[in-house]
């Protein structure tokens, strides 16, 4: 069996091994509000031109009330230094989470795969993926950030914690792990069994990330009944 010591690999080699084996990875398709200021601020007005939208596959549930998403920084920062809240250092989603403290996490379905993939294109901070892709927004119930109207699942979340992730030497911060507290969830009736309180996986038809440019979908659900 081939053996790889990570300290001897390039970043690209590490990424290919991890992304190709830790699969399938669920995808967080996140809307956040871009504000005019880079200071922590209260949200006052929301338009489709101020909404950022981006997918992330280093994503999962930590508990039944907390989601996690890891977002790489645009440039590394020495440990001990505080990175300015600007797009020079943070991707728009991360910057918006830090300045507004909230966002909506969607679970994309297979029918949304193409437009979701297109939303990963890097745009200027003053541009909106929602507007560029012609998507419709829907007002959230608890937070001010709106969600995507066409989405089957929308988690309304608030920022719980930001955890810096360092390089192997511990000298530089490369990315951040954001813990997002779930405040509410909207679920389309077509994927929800109200009697049992279950989400129907086949109806949700979620798309997941594999290695390289590849995605996966659910083709079979096994009803595995334990005998213990």
Quickly list its features:
alpha+beta; single chain; globular; 5 helices; three-stranded antiparallel beta sheet; 228 residues; seven-stranded antiparallel beta sheet; 14 strands
Question: What would you say this structure looks like, in words?
Answer:
- The structure is a single chain.
- With 228 residues, this protein is an alpha+beta fold.
- It has 5 helices and 14 strands.
- The strands form 4 sheets. A 7-stranded antiparallel beta sheet has the order 3-2-6-9-10-5-4. It has a 3-stranded antiparallel beta sheet with strand order 1-13-14, with no helix packed on it. Strands 7-8 form a two-stranded antiparallel sheet.
- The longest helix has 11 residues, at 11-21.
- The protein starts with 10 loop residues before the first helix and ends in an 11-residue tail after the last strand.
- Residues 37-41 have low confidence and may be disordered.
Topology:
Elements: H1 11-21, E1 25-26, E2 28-33, E3 51-56, E4 59-61, E5 66-78, H2 92-100, E6 102-106, H3 113-118, H4 129-132, E7 137-138, E8 147-148, E9 153-166, E10 172-187, E11 192-193, E12 198-199, H5 201-204, E13 207-209, E14 215-217
Antiparallel strand pairs: 1-13, 2-3, 2-6, 4-5, 5-10, 6-9, 7-8, 9-10, 11-12, 13-14
